[in-house]
Amino acid sequence: MSFVLVQVIVGGLLLGAVYALFSSGLTLVWGMMNVVNFAHGDFVMVGMYVAYVVYTLLGGGPLVGAPLATLLLATLGIVVYFGLIRDIMKGPMLAQILGTFGLALLLRYSVFWWFGANFLSLPENLVGGTFDIGGIRIQASRLLAGVVALLVTLGLHLLLTRTTLGSRMLAVAEDSTAAQLMGIRPDTMQAIAWAIAAGATGLAGALIATFFYVVPTVGETLGIVAFVTVSLGGFGSVPGALVAGLLIGVIESLSGYLIGAVYKDMVVYALFLGFLWFRPQGLMGKS
Amino acid sequence: MSMSKLVGLLSAAAIMMALGTSAFAQQKTVKIGAVFPLTGQAASAGVHAKAAIEVALDIINNAHPELGNFPLAKNAGLAGLGGAKLEVVFADNQGSPATGQNQALRLITEEKVVALTGAYQSGITLTTSAISEKYGIPFVNGESVAANLTERGFKWFFRTTPIATDFAKVYYDFLTEMKASGAKTDHIALVHDTTEYGASVAATITSAFKEKGIAIAQDVAYTTNATDVQSQVLQLKEKKPDVVIMISYTSDAILFAKTMQSLDYKPPMLLADDAGYSDPSFLKAVGKISIGAFNRSSWSVGAPGSATAIIAKLYKDKSGDEMDDTAAREMQGFFVLADAIDRAGSTESAKIQAALKATDMKPEQLMMGYKGIKFDDKGQNILASGLIIQLQDGENYVAVFPKANAEKAPVMPYKGW
Amino acid sequence: MRRYVWLLIALALVIAYPWVFSTPFQQRLGALVLLYAIAASAWNIIGGYAGQVSVGHVVFFGCGAYAAMGAYAHYGLSPLVGIPAGFAASVAIAAVIGVPTLRLAGHYFSMATIAVAELARLIVTNTDYLGAAVGLSGPTVPRNVFDLSFISALPYYYLFLIVLAITLVITWWMARSRMGFYLRAIKDSERAARSLGAPASRTKLHAYMLSAGLTSVAGALYAMMFGFVDPESGLGILISVKILIMAALGGAGLLFGPLVGAAILVPLEEISNAWLGGKGAGLTFVVYGAIIMLIARFQPGGILALVNRLLSKRKGAPHAP
User: Fold this and answer.
1) b/e string for C108-147 if b means 16 or more Cβ within 10 A?
2) In whole angstroms, what is the distance from residue A39 CA to residue A27 CA?
3) pLDDT above 60 (res C143)
4) Could you give the count of Cα atoms lying within 13 Å of B76 in the half-sphere of its Cβ?
5) How far apart are CA A21 and CA A152, in angstroms?
């Protein structure tokens, strides 16, 4: 394998880990509550702005920004759950699209109103520059995001499969009425799920901000990637989102390098559609 | 209250009213509509355009003797209309050709504007100017570069900005000179997005260079608002072109700069085509890792105390950002429109149109580095031109080509960070 | 009988609208409401009645728009020729993408339609024949009345009204037919519908094709009115969402739901833009976003569902389905 090709694949894996990172929150609420969140990309965006504000006001890097973004977004998640989601969950899927799309515009343009339309950016070397391992270059900020993506996936997976809280959440997801009869409060469980999902999304945003630009409309760009990642991985499957994210990252990188960058998104969409033909429930979704 | 007091009050009121109305008659305002993307993906550009036009309004409506002989600056208001003030009604095109057209219709029919300017994105300028053509309202565009805009046989559309064919010529001249001074310029790579801007500029450069016998060795196209550009940078790194011409909007330009640093790639010469590389946000974000980048522009701040320097200062005070080429081209377009209304001495559409057709502005009357403003039959400014600037300190561009306008000599090779 | 009286009164009001609100902008606003009502009503057939939430209907919208502009740009024909061409192409495309995607359950179908739409947008952006990123333009100066390029919005208004009426009559007829019966059964429970012997796949596909064809007409009319189409305005995912939220907001699966949704959202969008857009602070969408969010929160079934419920309550009639 040629040397450049290794770099392309490494870059693709790191990119894919980032996709997985900002998709894990979406797959959690989608799978658990069957709620489509059109505002997901804008949650990422808010996380990015938190990191930006932390840096410009406090001079803090992601060590401060990421936990703060996680906490703030988790709070936002709870507020959104009780203020909006709890009610539109009972309605048809259309009401969810309507409500979360409205929320997306509200978030996007509140940030726009406050921060303006300018492209913002954090300094390059906030997270330790770039490693050169035998000629393969790895950006520390992307590596950090990649490692966190693995940890978040592992953490969420363990939470759902190994803890009482997790099994209660899954019980609510499975059958909310039956769970209620067993003494589990669906409202609390779902609020917790939203807090976790939004928190993970905020964390993702804060980390992405270290190597991406920050602008109010950035959620549009990232949101659609998250949608494809989650559907490819299977709704509700956190490990599925990781595998799908890595897969999409590598496919994008390879096709961008070998065929041309214009075609990489087309390749991803076409493969995604072809894949659904053979496996309509995604990589790791329940049929 | 006695009778005499009442009479006194009434007469005072009558005098004031009479004064008021006559003052009002003199203070007539002329309304112009401006349609820009104030929300959506291109909002950054639209918000800066708005600030630029507000500065132009300040210059026109208030006395600015410090600007010397700059048109419309010396006294308050438009002299040709008895000191009438200009008023601009802004509208948001939301990045949609349909919304742009709806808003243009509203400005023409409800706000009764006498002329229009805008609309940044070429596709929206196309639909917006179509409505002004139907209503017979002059439309002056200062920034959209798509060739087809002036190929429609419109009688009410005028464009002051240079277009892709002008850019290609500047690049050719610049590269020829650089080659003469010893730089290698044989292997040229074009990096561009597939938007109407990126694709058309790239195609024009390719064919213009081909006519001169120069082949573009590498063409790297990508979809705008990319999430990642590593593979594109690696393609360049592998082919090692002598010159990389970058045609990108701000979002992608920032990503390219960051990725080139992380992959440790520096072309010997990086030549950018305005757009993203001129955005002050780009300079703030990644200027320090793009040192030595050349860029195409028609705007240059100029010597301290010059009219352009004063305008740049006014703009910075207004918007908080440095003046960039796109905002400056919009501002220039607006000045040309205001000048035509002033010369027409009327708000009648046909008279403004006639004045626009008769426009013949000299370089010293302009804030941009054009050779002048003179429209051909299609409404295109035939004297539009550009210069090459370089980011030598990572903070501000300086003019380096052509020699007549150069503040400093070009520095090679590209330094990056 | 009383229903028909109300219907006639409503129709009279709609016909009279451009004479009561007679400024060019108001007339255009009326025409736009009808245009989006056509698109949303067409979407309603598959999205509302059949409950298959397509978020990629912009493919058909774009198909119509490109057919209309292409007829003029490439062959110098009236854009009107594009209507049947776009209709036929849309129905064919719907058949091709409907067979694999309609098998998908719920959200997977929605996601697949998004992917199809994005794929189409990317392909068109890189296809020179379709104008690539520059797009295709209509006649700049109308050659004759068949170019459908008018200064006044009045001709558009009545043209759109007729097309909307046809769309609604087709929808009404479909909803009352055996097909409508099957669709409602599928929407409630596809498995149950199948076990009762309803040809679910075929019915869904037919509804999808009908919906696609009618959506393309809206796209063609859109392109004629604005004289232009490019990949963003003809195939952008936001158009899909816009069509969808109009139907959802008015009341999906109800005959007049999309019209009510369009009559609320289009003026809301244009008027909030006229008031707030010029300030350049993004407040338009803060207000717009908040309003549709609140409607979804308090009226998840759409405005018309609320009206129906109130009416049936007043009459003391049993709950309308």
Assistant:
1) bbbbbbbbbbbbbbbbbbbeeebbbbbbbbbbbeeeeeeb
2) 13
3) yes
4) 7
5) 7
pLDDT (0 to 100) of residue A60: 82
What length does chain C have? 321
Which chains would you list as touching C if contact means 3+ CB atom pairs under 8 Å? A, B
Mind listing the pLDDT tens digit for each residue in C261-297?
Answer: 999 999 999 889 998 988 878 899 999 999 999 999 9
Distance, CA of C105 to CA of A270 (rounded, Å) = 19
- Phi (first) and psi of residue A20, to 5 degrees: -60, -40
- The Cα A52–Cα A68 span in angstroms is 11
B43 to chain A, any CB pair closer than 8 A? The answer is yes
Q: Which of C77, C82, C50 is nearest to C66 (CA)?
A: C82
Q: Where are the domains of chain B?
A: 10-162+303-365, 165-297+387-405
- Which phi and psi angles does A118 have, rounded to 5°? -65, 150
Domain B165-297+387-405 CATH assignment equals 3.40.50.2300:
yes
Q: pLDDT at position A287, please?
A: 55
Q: Cα(B215)–Cα(B221) distance, rounded to whole angstroms?
A: 16
- Min CA distance, A131 vs chain C (Å)? 35
Band of pLDDT at residue B357, cut at 50, 70 and 90: very high
**Cβ contact, residue pair B229, A217, below 8 Å:** no
Q: Could you please report the per-residue DSSP string of B295-320?
A: EEES----STTSHHHHHHHHHHHHHS
Q: Where are the domains positioned within chain C?
A: 32-239
Rounded-to-integer distance, Cα B306 and Cα B366, Å = 12
pLDDT tens per residue, range B251-265: 999 999 999 999 999
Residue C136: CB partners within 8 Å, gap ≥ 6? C66, C69, C70, C72, C73, C130, C228, C229, C230
Most confident of A21-25, A69-73, C132-136, C137-141: A69-73
A114 Cβ neighbours under 8 A, 6+ residues apart: none
Q: State the pLDDT confidence band at B19, using cuts at 50, 70 and 90.
A: very low
Least confident stretch, B20-29, B247-256, B313-322, C229-238: B20-29
Q: Which pLDDT belongs to residue B21?
A: 44
Q: Is A260 on the interface with B (CB under 8 A)?
A: yes
The string of pLDDT tens digits covering residues B56-89 is: 999 999 999 999 889 999 889 999 998 999 999 9
Q: CATH 3.40.50.2300: does it fit domain B10-162+303-365?
A: yes
Residue from C209, C171, C265, C249 nearest C54 by CA: C209
User: Residue B336 contacts by C-beta under 8 Å, 6 or more apart in sequence?
Assistant: B140, B142, B158, B160, B356, B359, B361, B373
Interface of C with A in 47-86 (CB under 8 A): 47, 51, 53, 55
ipTM: 0.92
Residues 287-316 of B with CB under 8 A from A: 289
| Distance, C-alpha A119 to centroid of its chain | 21
User: Between chains, do A231 and C107 touch, taking CB under 8 Å as contact?
Assistant: yes
In chain C, DSSP assigns E strands to 136-137, 228-229
pTM of the model: 0.91
Chains touching chain A, criterion 3+ CB pairs below 8 Å? B, C
Which pLDDT belongs to residue B23?
A: 43
Q: Longest C-alpha distance within chain A, in Å?
A: 60
Instruction: Tell me the pLDDT of chain B averaged across its residues.
Output: 90
